[in-house]
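Anyone able to model this chain together with carboxymethyl coenzyme *A?
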Amino acid sequence: TGLTTLDYGFVNTAATKSAITYIDGDAGILRYRGYAIEDVAANSTYLETAWLLIYGSLPTPTELAGFENRVRRHTLLHEDLRRFFDALPHTAHPMSVLSSAVSALSTYYEDSLSIHDPEQVELSTIRLLAKLPVIAAYAHKKSLGQAFLYPDNSLSFVDNFLKLNFGTKAEPYEVNPVVSKALERLLILHEDHEQNASTSTVRLVGSTQANIFASISAGINALYGPAHGGANEAVLTMLQQIKDSGESVEKFVERVKNKEDGVRLMGFGHRVYKNFDPRAKLVKESADEVLAALGVQDDLLDIAKELEAVALADDYFIQRKLYPNVDFYTGVIYKAMGFPPRMFTVLFAIGRLPGWIAHWREMNQDPATKIGRPQQLYIGEPERAWPSA
Ligand code: CMC
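re: yes, here you go
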């Protein structure tokens, strides 16, 4: 129609109103429900932030304790779902495993189809928060050929997750508090980012009245791509390639600027942040702290810092307002913690889960919600006659 405007990548089109997260990309501001990301990261926990995003205000201590207990009670996977992993190859990318298993959750919990029943939505919320980390850890264990552990509900959310990933049946596992604290902080930094590609996917699928597991499984698949969450894995691959090839950082940056084979500086650039990404600043602090505390020396961190310095001094990046984003330094930290690169985007997914849930619920409660159905501008053939025989 004459009213249709073309907007590739939805650069100018708001698809919804939302009260969850505020971003000012020019000023480098990010707020969850009005609270500055710096304050949330310094003072909160993953589950407290999840409550904040989902319910809109900070929980009382009693509310938080109740919430943590409910999540704890739902960590076990159905035994049949535990065996679901047996059918997948050990070479499977953990992101594919994650989205498949989350999709499979709706086969175990058909009550999740009652998307307008608040009690069922609440139960699905708790199930997702409790089970996604377990599914993620099993995807990791599967890739290593190691036995799965059962959750240990005496531990905190993050410590339980670390034990499921790094504990074995042969020895007791002791959580390193430095790792635990840093991981909690990183998860918080990823919890929401308004209408990014995966959250928009969750909303689009949810707008068809699909259940929350189906919607979030779709969001996980959207996050997988290297232009989105997959960037954290791609950054590490890039740093490793620079190291292995012996190519200088300056030479690599030249190739990026010349757009040689479409090579990009992964972990740089953002659709909304045209100043700096406030999360990247906090992540960079964590990188130095964690590596120092763990006594890890990693050449890849040095290469990353050199890359950042070279890029930030270069006209190409200055003119295009390209700054390091949240994914630039996270991989180096996850690596120091012992996670393989293929798990990095899975960690992003666990982080983003509360945001996806909050958006799905907000969308479902908004009477203005309509099925998502973009327009197109047709550029194909006009009507033509079918060739006669
Ligand atoms: N390296 C080199 N050049 C870049 C980069 C980069 N990382 N990002 C953008 N550009 C250039 C791009 O070539 C274009 O230049 P020109 O005008 O000469 O054609 C200009 O900057 C604008 O780029 P765009 O692709 O139109 O920007 P966008 O808003 O559509 O893309 C982005 C945003 C994040 C997809 C992109 O910056 C990118 O591909 N970055 C690398 C991948 C990455 O780190 N993604 C993580 C994003 S943050 C967390 C998350 O969402 O998961």
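DSSP finds 17 helices and three strands in the chain.
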